[in-house]
């Protein structure tokens, strides 16, 4: 039984970065951002398939860049959808029937560790659907019209990261439901879909190394971390 696969959404254009190319193609330590998580996941023996969901307009660029990819036998490339969840859906649709569990990871989180991924494997097998998240270190306020309404207990606040993972059969079943009865909101991650359908989602403790690249200052932070 092929147990684990990963879908890597790389279809966004990263408009908040203000750069001429998608943020996943920006240089980080001599290679594009997306190659870090791609290589980390592909190098794990537990991962039997890696699906990269890319922007349609950049397909030839990715294909050329990956001509020398060491784990080409594991790699599948699909075109991403308009929304993130549609890119993930396209990626999951490309998985072989033998795959039991799928992890979804943002390529904009380039410094994920193998140890953290292995914790996700274990949680999936032992408990079920899960996501990586780290506790908030700040006090969180609910604000309306520029005025504080209430304070949320910090111990209840976790900052969602990726991977977010579940059984392949679960995702496929939920996508079918969504096609029959579209959601009234645009899901920003996989956990929000699972939550909507009342599927328990367990926490795997994350860390700041797994933070997301969103701005140019984040890029400089990651470059500094790699320099160390």
Overview of the structural elements:
The chain is 32% helix and 25% strand. The protein is α/β, with parallel strands linked by helices and 228 residues long. It has a single domain, classed as Spore Coat Polysaccharide Biosynthesis Protein SpsA, Chain A (Alpha-Beta Complex). The strands form 3 sheets. It has a 7-stranded mixed sheet with strand order 5-4-1-6-10-7-11, sandwiched between helices. The protein starts with a strand and ends with a helix.
What distinguishing features does this structure have?
two-stranded antiparallel ribbon; single chain; Spore Coat Polysaccharide Biosynthesis Protein SpsA, Chain A; about 230 residues; seven-stranded mixed β-sheet; alpha/beta
Task: Briefly characterize the structure.
Pathway: Isoprenoid biosynthesis; isopentenyl diphosphate biosynthesis via DXP pathway; isopentenyl diphosphate from 1-deoxy-D-xylulose 5-phosphate: step 2/6. InterPro entries: IspD (IPR001228), IspD/TarI (IPR034683), IspD/TarI_cytidylyltransf_bact (IPR050088), ISPD_synthase_CS (IPR018294), Nucleotide-diphossugar_trans (IPR029044). The chain is an alpha/beta fold and 228 residues long.
Biggest sheet: strand arrangement: 5-4-1-6-10-7-11
Number of strands: 11
Q: What is the CATH T-level topology?
A: Spore Coat Polysaccharide Biosynthesis Protein SpsA, Chain A
CATH class assignment: Alpha Beta
Helix/strand order, N-terminal first: EEEHEHEHEHEEEEHHEH
What's the end-to-end separation, in Å? 40 Å
Mean pLDDT: 93
- How many domains comprise the coordinates? 1
How many separate helices? 7
Structural class: alpha/beta
Kindly report the name of the CATH homologous superfamily. Answer: Spore Coat Polysaccharide Biosynthesis Protein SpsA, Chain A
Query: Which sheet architecture does the biggest sheet show?
Result: 7 strands, mixed
Strand content: 25-35%
Keywords: Isoprene biosynthesis, Nucleotidyltransferase, Transferase
Protein name: 2-C-methyl-D-erythritol 4-phosphate cytidylyltransferase
GO molecular function: 2-C-methyl-D-erythritol 4-phosphate cytidylyltransferase activity
Catalytic activity: 2-C-methyl-D-erythritol 4-phosphate + CTP + H(+) = 4-CDP-2-C-methyl-D-erythritol + diphosphate
């Amino acid at each position: 039984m092929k147990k684990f696969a990963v879908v890597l959404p790389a279809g966004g254009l990263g408009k908040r970065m203000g750069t001429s190319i998608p943020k996943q193609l920006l240089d980080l330590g001599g290679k594009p951002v997306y190659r870090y998580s791609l290589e980390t996941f592909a190098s794990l023996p537990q991962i039997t398939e890696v699906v990269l969901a890319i922007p349609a307009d950049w397909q030839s660029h990715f294909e050329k860049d990956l001509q020398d990819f060491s784990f080409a036998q594991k790699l599948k490339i699909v075109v991403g959808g308009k929304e993130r969840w549609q890119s993930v859906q396209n990626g999951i649709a490309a998985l072989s029937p033998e795959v039991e569990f799928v992890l979804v990871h943002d390529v904009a989180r380039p410094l994920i560790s193998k140890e953290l991924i292995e914790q996700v494997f274990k949680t999936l097998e032992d408990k079920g659907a899960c996501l990586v998240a780290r506790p908030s270190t700040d006090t969180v306020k609910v604000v309306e019209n520029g005025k504080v309404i209430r304070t949320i207990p910090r111990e209840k606040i976790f900052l969602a990261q990726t991977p977010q993972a579940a059984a392949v059969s679960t995702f496929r079943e939920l996508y079918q439901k969504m096609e029959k009865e579209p959601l009234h909101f645009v899901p920003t991650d996989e956990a929000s879909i699972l939550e909507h359908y009342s599927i328990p989602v367990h926490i795997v403790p994350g860390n700041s190394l797994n933070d997301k690249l969103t701005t140019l200052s984040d890029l400089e932070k990651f470059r500094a971390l790699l320099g160390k």
